[in-house]
Predict the 3D structure of the following.
Amino acid sequence: EVQLVESGGALVQPGRSLRLSCAASGFTFHNYVMHWVRQAPGKGLEWVSGISWNSGSIGYADSVKGRFTISRDNAKNCLYLQMNSLREEDTALYYCVKALLVVREVIGFFDYWGQGTLVTVSS
Amino acid sequence: DIQMTQSPSTLSASVGDRVTITCRASQSISSYLAWYQQKPGKAPNLLIYKTSSLENGVPSRFSGSGSGTEFTLTISSLQSDDFATYYCQQYNSYSLTFGGGTKVEIK
């Protein structure tokens, strides 16, 4: 059974940093592109970032480019999101997501989602 | 970035109704469109990919069609388990983008 378990969400002040983690199991982690997708309270879905199996291809949404860094450790079956210079508009539930197929680089769609970890940015 | 516009934003329907949701892209995305269902407090669930391919385990009452810039998700006979919010997502190019969602409510 595929499991994606996020952790690291917290209440933080604007301008501070936070690191999210996602522990993956039930599939061959190093074979798949992985992503972070977020959902602000009561709002829709927003893609944040994706990373290829070997970290050779990475993509970011414009809203987080230069502030967030995605990474993975295939030996530990873990995905990470380092979030710096956090803003109030980054407040959201952050989902760790597995890509089923990609068209190229990390561009694809998603078949498994974690339950999310909540990041609240507020003073 | 490609903008994805869903309509309607809310839809009221009864069990047994045929339901159609539309998703329009601001430019052509070929057939690279997926649909997800999300229930309150839960993560999204993949229904359809590449416009019309049904994900394993998804009931056959769900179907998708379209190409280029206009796409539809159809539920042939709405069941009580289908009341949820539905999102389209393009994966033709960066940034990956979702529609704003369509909430299917009980009439």
Summary: Chain A has a mean pLDDT of 97.
